[in-house]
Amino acid sequence: MSEVSQRAHQEEPLAALPKVDLHVHLDGSVRPETIMELADASGVALPADHAEELLAYMQVAEDCDNLQDYLSTFSFVLAFLQDGAALERAAYELAAQAAGENCLYMEVRFAPQLHTEHGLTLEDIIGHVVRGLKRGEDTFGITARTIVICMRHHGMEINRAVLDAAAHWHGRGVVAVDLAGDEAGYPAELFRELFGEARRLGLPITIHAGEAAGPANIREAIVHHGASRIGHGVRLDEDLEVFELVKARQIPLEMCPVSNLQTKAVAAWSSYPLRKYAEEGLIVTVNTDNRTVSGTSLTMEYRKLMEHCGVTAGDIAGFIRNGLNAAFVEDAVKQRLLRQFDNACAELGLAPG
Fold first, then answer.
1. Could you give the CA distance from residue 146 to residue 127 in angstroms, rounded to a whole number?
2. Could you tell me if 179 and 149 are in contact, meaning their C-beta atoms sit under 8 angstroms apart?
3. How far is CA 142 from the centre of its chain?
């Protein structure tokens, strides 16, 4: 069998597999065509005349040096996501993108405090995203929920307001809260009081940690913040004690391979730790992080892992099943999705690894 034929044979089950994305940012996944139409409707001049040219302002450059450099790509898009219609459209179209590659379930995260320039309240902003995803559910059959982000560079007052707004929508589309932003510049220990408040409000917690800074942030997120999942966690193996903590508590990792290489959280595919983590008993999930900024999809993430990390289609199925088990979605929906996924794997002849 030729190399091309082998790759086509390997990718066939990947296309058919129902997929899960637990870690995908709304503002990092907006289509360039959408930005062009939003700009045209509002009379805003753009630095490019075609969608492909606009990607230069929305997608991470090949010479990206670190997470801060990566995050700088978001400001261009945020200017166009300041009204309800645009937010609903972005959420709806993200559901469409995911459903287009057979994504069964997704949790879309965003920071509502970044969308208030035109006077929308935090609760209104969350409501528009929830409604956009719900419309996507009704149209495409995908199940989608929302994670609300607190930003590391924001003060306690605004982040507490974000938690209150998330609590208002909890159980009505919102399933958890997160902490994101410049991890190296704002260590997790600064946010103990904030996430103590999140726990008092009954909000499930996931934290970006172990991406741009070391395992100490992972320990902090779990022990003092109450995180039941960790976003990224690629630097976990720098500290054996923290590694064993994550393993003992079976804390799922929301790994985002393409993004992790782009931000230099990991130097090269040869040192990407996902397979090692899985073989040593950690709960690994695979996610896109930012579809547009990273120029990726779930299928691409899986293919890269198969090409560079020696995982099989069965392993990928196992990571997807981990994602369903780790999802913050209500249990009755989770059990339905698990049955649907297991039936699909049986039809494909895949035993999740």
1. 10
2. yes
3. 16
How crowded is the C-beta side of 284, counted as CA atoms within 13 Å? Answer: 28
273: CATH: 3.20.20.140
**List of residues 6+ apart from 198 with CB closer than 8 A:** 163, 177, 205, 225, 226
Closest CA to 128 of 118, 293, 154: 118
Query: What is the model's pTM?
Result: 0.94
- The number of C-alpha atoms within 13 Å of 221 and in the hemisphere containing its C-beta is 36
User: Which of these is catalytic: 88, 107, 197, 211?
Assistant: 211
The band of 313, judged by pLDDT with boundaries at 50, 70 and 90, is very high
Question: Residue type for 157, please?
Answer: E
Section 223-244 average pLDDT: 97
Q: Count H helices, E strands: the chain?
A: 16, 8
Within a domain: 6: no
In which band, very low, low, confident or very high, does the pLDDT at 75 lie, cut at 50, 70 and 90?
A: confident
- Pairwise pLDDT comparison (2 vs 37), residue with the higher score: 37
Q: How sure is the predictor about 7, in pLDDT bands with cuts at 50, 70 and 90? A: very low
Task: Provide CB contacts within 8 A for 237, sequence distance 6+.
Answer: 243, 273, 276, 277
Domain annotation covers residue 48? yes
pLDDT tens digits along 134-157: 999 999 999 999 999 999 999 999
Indicate if the alpha-carbon torsion angle 80, 172, 220, 243 is positive or negative: negative
* Beta bridge pairs of residue 149: 178
- Cβ contact 287:301 at 8 Å: yes
Q: Is 352 helix (H, G, I), strand (E, B) or coil?
A: coil
Instruction: Verify whether residue 211 is a known catalytic residue.
Output: yes
Considering its fold, how many domains does the chain have in total? Answer: 1
Q: Which domain holds residue 193?
A: 18-348
Q: What is the DSSP letter of 239?
A: -
Distance CA 284, CA 278 (A): 6
Question: What DSSP state is assigned to residue 170?
Answer: B
